[in-house]
Amino acid sequence: MSKTTLAIIAGVSAAAGSAATAAIYASRPQRKESATTTVSPTATSTLPPPPAPAPLPTPLRKDHLPPVNPTGVFQYGFPGPVNDLRPTLSTTSSFDRRTRNPAWVAEHITPASINANNADRRHSTFVEDENIPEKFRARLHDYFRSGYDRGHQVPAADAKWSQDALDQTFLLTNMCPQVGDGFNRDYWAHLEDFCRRLTNHYPSVRIVTGPLYLPKRDHEDGKWRVSYEVIGNPPNVSVPTHFYKVIFAEDGMTGGDVSLGAFVLPNAKIDNEKPLQSFEVPIEAIERASGLEFASKLPVHRRKRLCEQITCSLLVRDYADRQKNLMGTPAPKKPGAPPSLTQRVP
């Protein structure tokens, strides 16, 4: 479902983009060829006259001055949109005031940060983020009896290196409404575990996670529409239709290779047997769907496809077992297969 939707979005955006580009270039005045002066092969020749000075711009007549000043509204305040940049010890995020959800949340994990065990989740509680203006803030009671989990975008298990860092992952600016059984407590949690196990193979892993609100085709009229639930009383917090993760697995060398992985999952129950690669999409598809850019400064020659470098597969375990052992156990490696995530590279 997600691949089809994103492919259509990508196709429509590409078509619109090419049409716009063509229109822009068509509207540009054609550059005139400069005139050439042919000098006859005589004993004497006259130099061409100096170019005429460029005419000075004609000042607007008083009766042509604009009678209005639209930007004058700024004297009362800038309307926006405003995306609140929210840095914490363990995350950096941009909060979308309209949906009361983060637009994206970024994290950085390493073997040292994942192996640390200096915090206890039992001491953490969900809290509203008072750095967000009150009228735009997601509230704890918005989730009450909503039928959705307060779904971490950056998981608490990625911030065990500090109790303060772990506590800050429980801010509602790091949450989105997620389906619980079959997703947040299952497939999504397995994906988070997959990201942690990447530190068995890479010394530095950066992850950007966030919600999407994707269109769905109506079976009756064939048209595409964006439709999603809004929870709270009054309705405040939008329920995303999908979630994405963009992964940057760095080789640790200055100017070295970066293995990129991009995945889009529906906010719905997913069978644990479904292959992770069935949710893999081009990073450009997420950019078009979200309006964000993730790798505009990463040269193409440094990019590698993550699922060609390692085996992109989930390690499915019960919730209780995941809490005890976040790093996984070695899996048998097939001959000629890419390195397993549980095999540490010297």
How are the SSEs placed, and which strands pair?
Layout: H1 2-27, E1 83-87, E2 92-96, E3 101-109, H2 111-115, H3 140-143, E4 149-152, H4 163-168, E5 175-178, H5 180-184, H6 187-197, E6 204-212, E7 216-217, E8 224-225, E9 230-231, E10 237-238, E11 242-250, E12 258-266, H7 283-290, E13 303-305, H8 306-309, H9 319-324
Parallel strand pairs: 12-13
Antiparallel strand pairs: 1-2, 2-3, 3-6, 4-5, 6-11, 7-8, 9-10, 11-12
Short overview:
With 346 residues, this protein is an alpha+beta fold. Helix content is 22%, strand content 19%.
Question: Can you describe what's shown?
Answer:
Helices cover 22% and strands 19% of the residues. Strand 1 and strand 2 form a beta hairpin. A 7-stranded mixed sheet has the order 1-2-3-6-11-12-13, with helices on both faces. A two-stranded antiparallel sheet has the order 4-5. Strands 7-8 form a two-stranded antiparallel sheet. The chain is of the alpha+beta class.
